[in-house]
Specification:
Layout: H1 2-8, E1 19-23, E2 29-34, H2 66-72, E3 83-88, H3 92-101, E4 105-110, H4 117-129, E5 132-135, H5 155-158
Parallel strand pairs: 3-4, 4-5
Antiparallel strand pairs: 1-2, 1-3
Helix pairs in contact: 3-4
């Protein structure tokens, strides 16, 4: 889950940074993604607004969700039988992609849109496809990345122990 949260930091969405990490049955990372605009489409040209008079002036018709990007960015032949860690419970569109990709388990951190039709549809799809979805319970409340530790005398030896 920490890798999903770290990848979310790459998102330029000012409201919702979401990341996803796919691991195979051996727990090796096979795909990572975050929410952003499609390849070749400038993050600075398309809108990031959540609301507008015209839906075309919002992010929703354009943004690619973290789950889609993680599946598309996979570094293996396929992701069948894999587990996806994702910061936010997937919407119905991402649920369809997850099912079609053969992912068998989704572990999510937040379910803040639980009662929306899109999330209800996602749970229905997951149930029908027998995809397990589990709320993540962190063992630690925070993880700190100390970039200076590797440069400190003697510290680099302790990082791998």
């Amino acid at each position: 889950m920490a890798v999903a949260f770290l990848s979310a930091q790459r998102s330029k969405d000012p409201n919702s940074q979401v990341g996803a990490c796919i691991v195979n049955p051996e727990h090796k990372i096979v795909g990572i993604g975050y929410n952003g605009m499609p390849n070749g489409c400038s993050d600075d040209v398309l809108p990031w607004a959540r609301t507008a008079k015209n839906k075309l002036d919002t992010k929703y018709p354009y943004v690619c969700h973290a789950e889609l990007n993680a599946i598309m960015n996979k570094n293996s032949a396929d992701v069948k039988g894999c587990t996806m860690y994702v910061a936010l419970f997937p919407c119905n569109e991402c649920a369809k992609l997850i099912i079609q990709a053969g992912i068998k388990e989704v572990i999510f951190m937040s379910d803040k849109y639980h009662d929306t039709p899109e999330m209800t549809a996602a749970r229905r799809l997951f149930d029908l496809a027998e995809i397990k979805y589990i709320k993540f319970t962190p063992k630690l409340s925070r993880i700190v990345i100390d970039f200076d530790a590797i440069n400190s005398a003697g510290q680099s030896q302790n990082l791998c122990q």
